[in-house]
Amino acid sequence: MCAGAWILSLLHIAKLLPFREPSAPSSRKRTEPKRNITVDGVVESATVEAGGDLIVAKGIVGNTDSVVRADGNVFAKYLENSIVHARANLQADCIVNSEVYSDGEIEVRFGRGIIVGGRIRAGKKVSAKVIGSKSESQTRIYLGGEPCMEYERQELAICRSTTASHTILYAIPMFYLWQ
């Protein structure tokens, strides 16, 4: 993909991202409209949050910094090296080396219908033609619970422990300065 098309894709995504409506000063409620996002091409190394469904015509290619989240369903041609959260169901033709969290079902039955590498966590069901490969990295499937909520709890615990460790690291040098 050339640089110009990549920038246009990001601008297209930015126009469709959900927004927060300002609340009245007396009210502490925040409302976020449920909006579906449709991407005609590829989501590449970007963070996308949809208040409703996320529909990606081609695929989602990520890295360790980007996370794709949807409060509804996620539909994509393929997922590669990406972190994807779907509060409802996820449907793709192929999942390769990705971390996928779905509180509903994960269906990979069309096209190649293959899940290779990565971690797949589904609340209800995982359905695919082929899961795993002898020559590829390990493929892990976890069923049950609320995977999206569990991920958020883990992230919160990591943030808290990081904050606590930074506090201790900064407190120790100050102690030595005062002696």
Structure at a glance:
The chain has helices at residues 3-16, 147-178, and strands at residues 37-39, 43-44, 48-50, 54-61, 67-70, 74-80, 83-86, 90-102, 105-108, 114-122, 125-128, 130-131, 139-143. It is of the alpha/beta class and 179 residues long.
Terminal CA distance reads 59 Å
Q: What profile does the largest beta sheet have?
A: 13 strands, parallel
Helix content: 25-40%
Tertiary shape: globular
Quaternary organisation: single chain
Proportion of residues in β-strands: 35-45%
Q: Number of helical runs? A: 2
Give the uncertain stretches in residue-range form.
1-32, 166-179
Task: Find the structural class using helix and strand composition.
Answer: alpha/beta
What's the rounded overall pLDDT mean? 77
**Rg of Cα set:** 20 Å
SSE sequence, one letter per element: HEEEEEEEEEEEEEH
| Number of distinct beta strands | 13
Provide a descriptive summary of the structure in words.
It contains 2 helices and 13 strands; from the N terminus they run H-E-E-E-E-E-E-E-E-E-E-E-E-E-H. The chain starts with a helix and ends with a helix. 26% of the residues lie in helices and 38% in strands. It has 179 residues and is α/β, with parallel strands linked by helices. The N terminus and C terminus are likely disordered.
Protein topology:
Blueprint: H1 3-16, E1 37-39, E2 43-44, E3 48-50, E4 54-61, E5 67-70, E6 74-80, E7 83-86, E8 90-102, E9 105-108, E10 114-122, E11 125-128, E12 130-131, E13 139-143, H2 147-178
Parallel strand pairs: 1-4, 2-4, 3-5, 4-6, 5-7, 6-8, 7-8, 8-9, 8-10, 9-11, 10-12, 10-13
